Each structure stands twice: as C-alpha cells, then as structure tokens.
Amino acid sequence: MTTLIKDGQAAKDIYLRIDGDDPIPDGGALLVSLPVWQDHWQRLTRRPDPIGVVLASHEHPEVIADDLENFAVIALEFPTFRDGRAYSYARLLRDRYGFSGELRAIGDVLLEQLHYMERVGFNAFELAGDDPLAELETARGDFSVWYQGAVDGRRPASVLRQARTSASK
Amino acid sequence: MYRYDEFDRTLVSERVAQFRRQVARRLTGELSEDQFKPLRLMNGLYLQLHAYMLRINVPYGCLSSAQLRALARIARRYDRGYGHFTTRQNIQFNWIALADAPDIMADLAAVEMNTMQSSGNCVRNVTADHYAGRAADEIEDPRVWCELLRQYSILNPEFSYLPRKFKLALTGSPHDRAAVAVHDIGLRMYRDEQGRPGFEVIVGGGQGRTPAIGKTIRQWIEPRHIILYVEAILRVYNLYGRRDNIYKARIKILVTALGIDRFRELVDAEWEQIRATGPVIDDAERARIQACFAPPDYDRAAAGDDPSPAAGISDPAYDAWLRSNVVAHKVAGYAIVNLSLKAPGRVPGDLAADKMERVADLADRFSCGELRINHRQNLSFVDVRRRDLPVLWRALSTLELATPNIGLASDIIACPGLDYCSLANARSIPIAQDLSRHFADTDKLQQVGSLTINISGCMNACGHHHVGNIGILGVDKRGAEFFQLTLGGSADENPSLGDRLGRGLPQADVPAAIERIVDAYLALRGDDETFLQTYRRVGIEPFRAVVYEPQGTTRQVA
Hints:
The complex is a heterodimer. By secondary structure, chain A is an alpha/beta fold. Chain A is built from 5 helices and 8 strands. The termini of chain A are far apart. Chain B is an alpha+beta fold. Chain B has 4 domains: 6-110, Sulfite Reductase Hemoprotein, domain 2 (Alpha-Beta Complex); 135-288, 2-Layer Sandwich (Sulfite Reductase Hemoprotein, domain 1), CATH 3.30.413; 300-398, Sulfite Reductase Hemoprotein, domain 2 (Alpha-Beta Complex), CATH 3.90.480.20; 413-548, Sulfite Reductase Hemoprotein, domain 1 (2-Layer Sandwich). Chain B has helices at residues 6-27, 33-41, 65-78, 101-110, 143-153, 226-240, 251-258, 260-274, 283-292, 316-325, 353-366, 389-398, 429-438, 442-448, 510-524, 531-538, 541-548, and strands at residues 45-47, 52-57, 62-64, 82-85, 90-96, 127-128, 168-171, 185-191, 197-203, 215-221, 326-328, 334-339, 350-352, 370-373, 379-385, 413-414, 453-456, 470-477, 480-487, 499-500, 505-506. The interface between A and B is large, with 37 and 38 residues.
C-alpha cells in the first residue's frame, strides 16, 4: 500500500491505472501505460476526464514530447532504486520539453532519493511506509546547500557565494 | 589547496548528520543490511572480509599536514594504527566499527575532508596528476577544473544512480601521470594550433574484467566548456548505459557497443542542446577557486642555490635517491620529492600513524605544509627547496621513506587483495612483499631502470595489472591461488593493455618468473631502451620462452 504525496501534502489518487488489455471506462481520470496511450490516444483524448501516462524506465519521454498537452500527470517508474534513468527523464521533461503538470515518481521510491527527485522536477511521490509525510519532511531537511543548479530553481552554492560577495562590497 | 567555505562546511556536516541517522536506523534494525548497503556505499563504507572498510577522498591527491595528522588520529583511535593509500588518491582504513563511522566522518569534516561518493554508482573522487601546478612540463594547473568537477558531481541530483561507477582523471601536462586513458572520462590538456590550452576528452577507458583504452571523443575543447561537456556524456550514459548486467554497465561497454562515432553523435547532439542554457562556469567563482591554488611565495634567491646540493654527502644511496625520487620543479631552485611507501618487504601504500605525523612535520618544515597522494601509492612533497634536499633525505631515510625506487621495479602497485577484500581471489600483498625484497638491491634496480609491476588480487583490477609493464593477476584455480602474468601494459601518454603471457603460476614461482623476464630484457635491450620499449620491439615470445621453457637450449637466459 502506498500513499500519494503531492506538492508536499498527502493527496487522494484519483487516477485509475490502465495497462495491457484493461478495459477503458467511459468516465473517470486514467493513468495509462505508454502502449495503451499509443493504441488508444484518439479515444482517450475524446474523454472529458484527465489523462496521465506511465513511462517504464526504458521508455524515453521523447516519444510523448509532442503529446504533453494531453497529460495532467506523467508517472515515471523506478523498477528498482538503482535504476536512475528517470532522473534524466524528469529533467528533460521539465527543462527541454516544458512539461508543467504533475510529475510523479512511482515504484521503488526511497526516503534517501526524495531530495534528488525533487531537485530534478518531481513534485509527486508514491511512498510506502507508515508515515510518508514525515519521511518527506526528513528528506527535505537533510540538506540546505547544493552545488548544482537544477529544475527546482534553488540557487547553488556558487551563485550564493557570488551574491554574498557582491552584497558585502 | 582548496579550502572549504561555509557552504562546503555546511554541506559536509549535513551529510555526516544524515549518515549518523542512517547508521542509527541500521543499528536498531529499522534498516536491513540490504536497505543500508547503498547508503553506506555512497559514503565510502564497505563491508569487507573482517570488518568495515572506510574509503576517504583525497580530492585530486592534495592533502595538508593538518589533514594527515587527523588521519593519524583516526588510524590510532578507530583502526589498528595505520592506513592504506590506494590507486585512486584515496586513503582506506580497514578495521572500522560501524558505530564509529559517523564520528570518524565528523572528525574528517573538521579538517575539510569527506567520504562522499568514494563508492557507489556515481561520480567518484576526481583524480589528477599528483604534480599538478608544480611540474616543469605542465601547460596549466588542472586543479581548478578538478574542483569545479568535484563540486558538480557531489550529490548531483541527476547522476547519483548511474548504471555503474564513474571515474574522472585530469592532467595538465602532455606527459600523463594520471593514467587518464584508463578512466571513464580522461581529460588531457594540450595546446591547439593557435597555442590555446584546452582539453582532449577521452571516454570509455577502464580496467576491470573488460579493460579498454579510452577513445578520443573530442580532440580539443575550451576548458570553460568542460562541465557542460561532461554533463552531456553523463546524460547519454545515464540514459543508454546497460542496467541488466553490472559487468556490462560501465561506459566503456556502451562506447564499444555503439562505436565511438555514434557515441560522439549522441553526446554532441546533447551538448548542442544544453550549451546555450546549461550551467555556465561563473568567472568569479572560477577565480575564487583558482585563488586557492595560488603557488606559495617562492624565495627568488633559491634560483641562485647550488642546483645539486650534496653538502657533505658522499653516499651512493643519496645519489640514487636524487635520480629516482627527485623531480624537476617549474620554479628554479625548487624540487618535487617523492616519498616511497615501497621499502623492501613493506605493504605497498600502507603508512603507520606515527609515520603520518612525522611526514606531516616534514611537510610543514620543507614543503609549505602540503603533500600529494599519487596513483602509484606513494606520497610527494611538491615545494622543496633544493638546498634542503640532503637534510630531507636523511629525515626520510630514518622513516624508511627514502627508498630510491620511484618508477623502478620495486615501486609495486598492489591492491589489498585476499588479506582484506571480499572480492579478491588471491593475496596481492605477499607477492608484492616478496618482489620488493627480491629487488632490494639498489644497483640492480637502477640497472633494470624504468619498470612498473602492478598486482591485482582479482579481475576487478584495483591494482592496475592491465597497465603494468609487468602485470600480475591473482586467480582462483579450484580453490588454490594462482597468478597470471601480463606484459607490455602502460598507463602513460602512450597507453597499452598488457598481453597475457601464459598459464597461471603458483605464488612460489612468481618471483623466479619475474626474475627471468627481467634478465631476458637485460639481455635483449638496446641502448637506453626501457623494458617497455624492448617489449614493444621484440614482442612476447622471448619472455614466454624463458618463463615456460626455462630449460630450452635456444632461449635460455642465465
């Protein structure tokens, strides 16, 4: 059982997962696999309810780069925490393809990875565990300094150093 | 050298606090060993055969005397009174208790050191020419770029879960002392036709079970673009490197599978995308870091010193030491002095706590309070006034750190091997000890000349056996330790992988086999030819014959 955390709050997951030959219901928000999207996009886009897509770790978001306006959510899967491809996918979706909707981390999402994930653009997480909100808070409190600029817009140490130097002049 | 400011200090202390919480969760059982393993590895903590091993970064090999004293205190308090310098400009402690690890990291943070990413599938400690900023043949000091790359890679949110580990090495000299061709990315500085310094970018080199000499992906790039270009390589690797088999996950496998031309297309396409918008190296930040590497105030009067000081010394050992261990400095009147951690019978790279403290004192007295660690597991003082050489030699001799063997046969690289390592098949250290005793005679050493002997206890090749002029690889044959020899490897600017000589030998036969190889070389060599030059000229057969057919009539070498 997992809990959805979105923008730092516990949230209700309104999306029904659709994969393989699952029947596509007429109403309700759906989170569909990439093959389902590719096979049924005409039908899916005619429905009034929100649509999201799930990308497995071998599915590069380039293939949906032209479809992004259709998606309220994109979920990127971590089949194991060791598989770090989705960090790059998230960054590309935000920085290069300009996706501004919900970017959700699913699968093997661990406490220690949350701050990396937030930095590359994820704003939603499906977390296991008893108290995922507390976990997120702990993870967010781990670091207050970053060496790199990233999608989250936090200013890296190099920028803060120069800001401090010019302020003291 | 680079000094932490409040941002570096905060980041490192936050990392220590985070790890302290993780260790506490492990000790209460909240985290299983499986869950804890990736966390401890990202902090350089391995579980070895007998205890935890902690690997500490010495970024691009630069260490202060205060840091060395802190390492001595750690060795005494938390280990068994010694540490081990590795081929990656790290120091390892082999007898660490898990519960002590956070305290050790806090002690390290107090002297601006850390263990972050010294293991794990992330960008590891950035290594460099250990003479950086001092070598007479250097174009530019590469350390400002090393430090920028270090900061870029630490806790990088996109590249902390790469397919496999990732090693960067830099040199600012045409003569490669950093083995850049056997790293995931190697950066070698040289001047283009207009005389502008830039980096050749080499990718996909490595050792391990699938050794490869790196290929040039970019002939020349302006140094200020280097972070972005590395980012492009890392992104292509993160997206396309194999994740189904850890033995095929290094970037060298991807480069080989795609071919360097296709790989270059992918990287250049990525670089074109990011070069307009990606992170730019801020000139002010670069200047701040550069200032950390400003040379000390050299005494101009030193240029007038006697260039070969030997006041009162008529000892051939001193002359041998001058020849082997003392290197030209870019400033007249100064020298670079190598401290050999390879005295006969010693464990390569090991240094006892009391010697660390004595070395720190000597660094303060003779070399501006700094020293370097190099990938051949020795130390260097890089700012020694030449007139101090006799006094320094005497002091180092009493510490057994003046063995005149740098770059010679007894300057052996050896991994920790089966004495410590849970991956090893065989013991490297006893072989190294045997061979160093075998080559204890200074005259013989000097006669043989330049020769690297590298020993790895398993195919993971931490002892760099593939690029030793003579490589020795420990293998397991039905439960017994055997050693396979390779010849002709080299990690310099003309790199090559060694060729396998033949079937593995039992440990007892290795010194005699090396002796026969060396004697064959002495019989075959032309004027001033090194072992490697002779080998490249005559090939492997004469050496194979003396090792495997020593009784043969035609090839026998007495």
